[in-house]
């Protein structure tokens, strides 16, 4: 199966596996572009897809980058990789095999990633979301500080388990429709945004622009009551 053929079966599987999940596709994390990030209650789960036509050439670097941001990590593979996939990932990574649209199997459940850091995860938040976390935890606004400094303050002052719940709730509640409004306003002024609408969301055009106003990434929400919360 090709990457594009594997995604919908994967998302259908995640609907049954998690009680609630928000999917973000093609998100840049450090030196890699994560195929799928799944926001669940209190955690970020990463899914790197290796279709039957893919190799493991970049996987070592990708593993290091996923480990910086994700509480749980999965290698999503085509059937041809099943025999040797475990040789290329750490013991705490899980494996999901997608053989066809109706055959998705959890070959190995992921364990908690020992390398993930909240300071890295907080870089996924918008500044307005960090300001919201400061507010609900009764901390000063820190208007003169950058995102890294604000993240450090939150981690030092707030119980980290509570902070993980608040952090993922921010990502659940994030409203991407603001980009539609900004795009429309800019186009009315004759400004080229460098982005186009697709059937699944917002994608970057090939033509590069110096200061794109919208981040690349497609997101949608899947909710289900068919499974217990993982964490």
Question: Overview of this structure, please?
Answer:
33% of the residues lie in helices and 25% in strands. By secondary structure, it is of the alpha+beta class. The strands form two sheets. Strands 6-5-4-3-2-1-9 form a seven-stranded mixed beta sheet, sandwiched between helices. Helix 4 (127-136) packs parallel to helix 5 (147-157). The longest helix is centred in the N-terminal third of the chain and has 15 residues, at 3-17. The protein starts with a helix and ends in an 8-residue tail after the last strand. The relative contact order is 0.17. Residues 195-216 and 223-231 have low confidence and may be disordered.
Lay out the secondary structure:
Elements: H1 3-17, E1 20-29, E2 32-40, E3 43-50, H2 59-69, E4 72-77, E5 94-100, E6 103-108, H3 118-121, H4 127-136, H5 147-157, H6 160-173, H7 178-188, E7 195-197, E8 202-204, E9 218-223
Parallel strand pairs: 3-4, 4-5
Antiparallel strand pairs: 1-2, 1-9, 2-3, 5-6, 7-8
Form type:
elongated
Rg, Å, rounded: 19 Å
What assembly state would you assign to the polypeptide chains in this entry?
A: single chain
What's the helix-strand series? HEEEHEEEHHHHHEEE
Q: Characterize the main sheet.
A: 7 strands, mixed
- Extended strand count: 9
Q: Share of helix among residues?
A: 25-40%
Content-based structural category: alpha+beta
Adjacency order of strands in the biggest sheet = 6-5-4-3-2-1-9
Instruction: Give the mean pLDDT.
Output: 83
* Spans where pLDDT lies below 50 across 5 or more residues: 195-216, 223-231
